[in-house]
Amino acid sequence: MSPGVRRAGAGQGAAAAVQLLITLSFLPSVVEAQVTGVLDDCLCDIDSIDNFNTFKIFPKIKKLQERDYFRYYKVNLKRPCPFWAEDGHCSIKDCHVEPCPESKIPVGIKAGNSNKYSKVANSTKELEDCEQASKLGAINSTLSNQSKEAFIDWARYDDSQDHFCELDDERSPAAQYVDLLLNPERYTGYKGSSAWRVWNSIYEENCFKPRSVYRPLNPLAPSRGEDDGESFYTWLEGLCLEKRVFYKLISGLHASINLHLCANYLLEETWGKPSWGPNIKEFKRRFDPVETKGEGPRRLKNLYFLYLIELRALSKVAPYFERSIVDLYTGNVQEDADTKTLLLNIFQDTKSFPMHFDEKSMFAGDKKGAKSLKEEFRLHFKNISRIMDCVGCDKCRLWGKLQTQGLGTALKILFSEKEIQKLPENSPSKGFQLTRQEIVALLNAFGRLSTSIRELQNFKVLLQHSRDTSTLWWERGTLR
């Protein structure tokens, strides 16, 4: 090869390297630049939320989710889709329910006349063996007969309380307790037209939106041109606060779920042993401003907005749990007391946050119009919870139903401030009540949001590291 050709080739290679370096360094900075500052519809900046979540909330909410009261969630995964014939299947074989083999079931939950409840053994080896035996991502029910007896005891205790918001699912013969710690939310391979039909139905049918205005980047909708996104957001900004809030809540929930999948992705599987971890490529595909045509940063800001809404709900419901009559019952007196102490500590942190969303600005118009709008808001959200029964992957359905119920409980709290303020100290109240399932869903759903924001910080670090590594490679190349 002649020197001229070598120089030309080297020049082209250098130009390509420079372009690669520019691309790698540009994308992370754009994500960081666009997901900063003050959020719309509230006076709170993202950096303050990041710091508050990282140093105060995340460590405590993670610990709370490991407590017996909050790790078991009762759910009916067999309800048929009420809107269309189910046709969804995971692209990998890991979404269906398979019980863990009896030989792998940990030490059971002790129950009986003493009402004592001993913790399930939680050694890493047992959990890994059980998870491997029940296949990747599949829901398993490592519940012994003693555990089931304990749950019956829990139900008797709940029945003795003054509940007025009982869910049909709790009584269904098809409902089952699921150990959330053994069924982490992560990538399952559930995607394609079935998954998008679910989200399409949520966005297109439930956001107070005329069909003439199309949500941007909707894969099921025909292309309408480059102006679709702007026409959508122009329409959105013209709505009243309540309807903007509704859309942002759904978008934030969608972003949070996508972040969980990106952060806990199936990277490889060797000899039957899966490797899970963050997938930067998948994160960019879902959130990068270039690959999403500017939509990604909007989604992430809506995640922060949803976090603020649920954070506000926790601060508002604190008086309900501060009463001595409220007991997070499992039968183990000491553990129940420790769990409540930790929960009240979290509530104190939520109340200390200085930049809460002001829910008083919602439904504040004339009484008749406000009441009608609130009811429409409630019915739209109830419909969304029904759509979750159309998810074709059991594990995805589990976490979708839990997070939807958690958000619904948060909205119930925000709409019940007066009733909460009137709660008696030493007797049940007929004005406001939370079921065990609502409490478990509320705290776990907020825990998922807290985890999402924490994972977003991790992705920023990984993107920065990717940029720094590329810079070092380029510098080494130029020195040769």
TrEMBL record:
Family: Belongs to the EROs family.
Natural source organism: Capra hircus
Example GO BP: cell redox homeostasis
Cofactor(s) annotated in UniProt: FAD
Membrane-related topology note: Peripheral membrane protein
Primary gene name: ERO1B
Compartment(s): Endoplasmic reticulum membrane
Protein name: Endoplasmic reticulum oxidoreductase 1 beta
Active site: C393, C396
Any one Gene Ontology cellular component term annotated for this protein: endoplasmic reticulum lumen
Signal peptide start and end residues: 1-33
Residues annotated as binding FAD: R186, T188, W199, S251, H254, R286
Keyword hit for Electron transport: yes
Disulfide bonds: C90-C95, C130-C165, C393-C396
Superkingdom assignment: Eukaryota
Keywords from the named record: Disulfide bond, Electron transport, Endoplasmic reticulum, FAD, Flavoprotein, Glycoprotein, Membrane, Oxidoreductase, Redox-active center, Signal, Transport
Xref: InterPro entries: Ero1, ERO1-like_sf
Molecular function GO terms recorded: FAD binding; protein-disulfide reductase activity; thiol oxidase activity
